[in-house]
Amino acid sequence: FLVLIIGSGSVFAENQDRSKSVVVIGSGTIYKEDAAAAKEEAISKSLISAVDLVSQNLIPLESLIHNFQTVTDMVYARAVNFIEGYKVLAESKTGNKYKVMVEASVSLDNLKKALGDAGITTGKSPMPSLLFLIAEQNPEEDLPLFWWGEEVVFVRSACETALSKLMEEKGFPI
User: Which of 8, 45, 68, 104 meets the CB 3.0–4.6 Å disulfide criterion with 86?
Assistant: First the structure.
């Protein structure tokens, strides 16, 4: 019985990694009292917003800035290709505006593939490499120990070890 629960959890996690569910709001303008067309416009805009939001979370900021035109063209022209499904959670009609709140499921596989085909990298932005310059003086030593300078001595200080470990845990390459 325990194995079945663990198996179900891994299947859920796999499906969760393949799509991202987001809640967004879209609006449409009512022309000539055609609320149905305004609702469709609002849904369409909300689906574009959903794909836009998910793509912003997939692409590192520097890459998004560099490829902004390509990403926006892709999102607006092909947003429906990345939507696995959606559900209208709420609707509102105020004056000549029709608004909808939509929960949309965006396919991460399809979006990542399209971005990759366009030459846009996804994932975490690279962290800068760190170099520690630490001079440490123990009470028993006359002078501080350090590894740079004229007389190079390799010293792995306690402070350097602790800082390196902490920064590696945070994702920085050392």
Answer: 104
End-to-end CA distance of the chain: 44
The C-alpha R_g of the chain, in whole angstroms, comes to 26
Q: Please give the pLDDT value at position 15.
A: 45
The residue ranges of the chain whose pLDDT is under 50 are 1-15
Alpha carbons 12 and 8: distance in angstroms, whole number: 6
Q: What is the pLDDT of residue 160?
A: 76
Q: Which of left, alpha, beta for 151 (phi over 0: left; psi -120 to 50: alpha)?
A: beta
DSSP 145: B
Could you give the CA distance from residue 136 to residue 81 in angstroms, rounded to a whole number? 58
List beta partners, residue 83.
106
Count CB atoms within 10 A of the CB of residue 88: 14
